[in-house]
Design a protein that fits this description.
alpha/beta, 8 helices, about 25% helix
């Protein structure tokens, strides 16, 4: 399935099948495949030794049996943490995956929305900056047509665009669409806008569609007004559970 030829509405599994599995784990991503998702959404941070790790928070406290900042722990230390028991004891063997492990697991099954966390942004732009590593890995896996990269830090997306014209980029925001968003959409030749569903209205959807943008609102704390969003003509939903896509 190609990012440029996707079914509508697009079902994007938020951090994998996070309603039924521990988020951002291989169990959650495999669960999304089984649930019939078209795409998974995941979060990427850098470890202390600068490896791409799939985890949402700046710290490991909430979703593992460890403690501390992700960027203060090495990949080896992160890989030994239990990333599943907090959700359910039967997931006690789940570990924090690397981005490479996730791409290997889902390639050929569904598309991937890689959200790069803004906390990983480095204004000085080192050669192994997180956005450069993500792009390099996507190229290595030959998945440019299957990947959408998004972030709240739009400068990172611009850095990627300067290096690769063919990858899809998505602007994340938790405020309504405005002139700044429309400016950045055109500035980086973006693919989509991913708003907090609570700030979205019909006029904004129409405004972004007029620019050629796809609109993928995301769930907040597991909640989303699926019927209302789909009635506005959004192109897909970023949800925790596939049942939310059927609430029409």
């Amino acid at each position: 399935m190609s990012i440029h030829n996707f079914p509508t509405p697009l079902f994007i599994a938020h951090r994998g099948l996070s309603a039924r599995c521990p988020e951002n784990t291989l169990a959650a991503f495999n669960g999304a495949i089984d649930a019939g998702a078209h795409m998974i959404e995941l979060d990427v941070c850098l470890s202390k030794d600068r490896h791409l790790v799939v985890i949402h928070d700046e710290t490991v406290d909430r979703t593992t049996n460890g403690a501390g900042a992700v960027k203060a722990l090495t990949l080896d230390q992160l890989g030994r943490l239990d990333a599943g028991s907090w959700f359910d004891p039967r997931f006690n063997k789940e570990r924090l995956p690397t981005l490479a492990q996730v791409l290997d697991a889902v390639k050929g099954h569904l598309m991937v929305n890689i959200e790069i966390k803004p906390e990983a942004f480095e204004p000085d732009g080192p050669t192994d900056a997180v956005e450069r590593q993500v792009l390099s890995l996507v190229r290595e896996k030959n998945m440019l047509d299957e990947v959408l990269v998004s972030s709240f830090e739009w400068l990172m997306l611009e850095n990627i665009r300067k290096l690769e014209s063919g990858i899809a980029l998505g602007l994340l925001s938790d405020v309504p669409a405005d002139e700044r968003l429309r400016h950045w959409y055109q500035r980086i030749n973006a693919f989509s806008w991913h708003p907090d569903f609570r700030v979205l209205n019909q006029q904004q959807v129409e405004s972004l569609h007029a620019l050629g943008a796809r609109v993928f609102p995301y769930a907040v704390d597991g909640r989303i007004d699926s019927r209302g969003m789909l009635a506005m003509g959004v192109d897909g939903l970023i949800v925790d559970d596939p049942r939310q896509m059927k609430e029409r």
